[in-house]
Amino acid sequence: MELNLPNNLSPELRQLLEEHRAIVAATLKPCVEIQFVPQRDLTLWQSKIGGSPYLPKTVDYPKGENGTELQFLAQINFAEVPHLPDFPEAGMLQFYMAADDDLYGANFEDYSKSENFRVLYFPEIEADETQLVTDFSFLPDNDDYSPLSGAAALQFTKKFEPMSWGDYQFNDRLGHLFETDELRWEYAEKVGRSEGHRIGGYPGFTQTDPREYDEAYRTFDCLLFQLDSEEVGTQKDCRVDLMWGDTGIANFFIKSDALKRRDFSEILFNWDCC
């Protein structure tokens, strides 16, 4: 892995990063960046945000603590995704959240409490549509608080990135390199930004990494999935609009050993906004 610096750095930041290239390069992690691609006629099997989920008839649709069905947020078909270490190479990973809750299913008293959000994993994908739920008319029309409208396909690109400024470990690992706030902020804006949609890599925040103030959450050491606020598409029937509060960002974290075991039952879900 090689540290590639952007061309628009100030001379001061470029010199600093060149002098400490080995330290910064040691933080490089692979990730898969995601782009929303508006598309009509999304299939049940493909990676997507919004729309109808892949759901075998043998599986109950996930519900929140009040017994109401959760909103389908997104799914990732790992056969379509460039491989990341420890992540699945096949199967379907899905994310659901409460749409009748102004916190979108998050619990800011206990970020890993999942009564109102859910992550499901299907290691094998059923290719016979007759074995899948295709009629979702049973779902309630209760999305008053939902951050999501519309649907889109997902497109994936693998890259390597250095530690983001928002990661709780940044001050310990890289913060000491920056003698001025101006250099630190330039790094945050141009090098260690990490906003956008992604699988793996480093997280982005508009506020603070929840793992910074509670060591118990630091066991959730892997960014499983991140969705930023974005509106894509211009046609009414071919667009997606995702808005976490006031242009916020959402993160799903998992423990590395759980990821290796394909155990998605314990997830830390956080979102914050401006």
Your description of this structure?
This protein is an alpha+beta fold. It has a single domain (11-272), classed as YwqG-like (Hypothetical protein YwqG fold), CATH 2.30.320.10. It has five helices and 13 strands. It has helices at 11-19, 21-25, 170-173, 181-190, 256-261; strands spanning 29-37, 48-49, 71-77, 92-97, 117-122, 148-150, 152-161, 197-200, 222-228, 230-235, 238-242, 249-254, 268-272. The strands form three sheets. A seven-stranded antiparallel β-sheet has the order 5-4-3-2-7-1-8, with no helix packed on it. The radius of gyration is 19 Å and the shape is globular. The two termini are 34 Å apart.
Return the domain count.
Answer: 1
The largest sheet has its strands arranged as 5-4-3-2-7-1-8
Q: Indicate the overall shape.
A: globular
The CATH superfamily label reads YwqG-like
Give the structural class.
Answer: alpha+beta
User: Which regions are unreliable across 5 or more consecutive residues at pLDDT < 50?
Assistant: none
CATH structural class: Mainly Beta
Query: Averaging pLDDT over every residue, what do you get?
Result: 95
Count of beta strands: 13
Return the CATH architecture: Roll
Series of secondary-structure elements, N-terminal to C-terminal: HHEEEEEEEHHEEEEEHE
For this structure, the CATH topology is Hypothetical protein YwqG fold
Number of helices: 5
Q: Which quaternary structure do these chains form?
A: single chain
Rg computed from alpha carbons, rounded to a whole number of angstroms: 19 Å
Q: Kindly report how far apart the N and C termini lie.
A: 34 Å
Percent strand equals 25-35%
Helix proportion: 10-25%
